[in-house]
Design goal:
InterPro entries: Acyl_CoA_acyltransferase (IPR016181), GNAT_dom (IPR000182)
Number of domains: 2
Order of helices and strands: HEEEHEHEEHHEEEHEHE
Protein name: N-acetyltransferase
Keywords: Transferase
CATH architecture of the largest domain: 3-Layer(aba) Sandwich
Radius of gyration: 19 Å
GO molecular function: acyltransferase activity, transferring groups other than amino-acyl groups
CATH superfamily of the largest domain: Gcn5-related N-acetyltransferase (GNAT)
Distance between the termini: 34 Å
CATH class of the largest domain: Alpha Beta
Pfam families: Acetyltransf_1
Amino acid sequence: MNDVNLLEIARRFEHKQATSAVELSTSSAPLADGWMAFGGVGSYINKSCGYGFERDVTGAELDALVDFFASRGVEPKAELSPFAPQSLLKGLADRGFVLREFETVLYRPLPAGEDLSKLAQGTPAGLRIERVDPSDDAAVRRFVEVAGSGFVPEGEQMPEVFWEMGLKAARKPNSDSYMAWIDGMPAGAGGCEVSDGLTSLFGTSVLPAFRRRGVQQALIAARLQRGREKGSDLAAIMSSPGIPTERNAMRLGFQMAYSRAVLVKPGAGLVPSP
């Protein structure tokens, strides 16, 4: 990919974000050229995304976006790429949406012939990366527990809705889940999803006792190899700005594609979503 088309990367990644959320949702609805998804109060898939590329979003559709989430008791949420038209931003602002946070989208081409096994250097002795058998319930639950551990405060239990979504995601036909082991002890975990030539990496956590030892880089490398095995020409990963995930991805050849904005409409009685 010598001539990088960031608009096309955004189109592919945002479409994948939308369709993945729909697949995990308990209810969903189309929104212009994208989707809205709901997975329960407190679910990380409560979002709308993937729209603003092919056509303008009408005022009636934005009103439907507000109603879709508010009627379910959660804050309406819009996740947008920087290619969103100004009319869409104005329409959301007019309805009371405010900026909550930014997310970084990183990309990496997966050229044929590259030796991806050499990406992760300096990994600790005794490290083993293992793909999880989705039919092994105990293994899947262990994966979800480890992968989700980094998304809740240390020492706290994962909310039930996180368990439900995690188990569902790990069993999706186009997903692969990986566990990292060091000397027989669970050290970290991460998932990936491959479709339409794009490998999306997500849900990576390393347990505190094993951090700063190259575990996350090894998990990234394993998933990149899996993506290319499945025919991907591109990999992408989303991260909060400046955290270890972003730095580790860049060490393995990822580059910044764009920052995406997360907008929400707060309201009395509406529960924020992660």
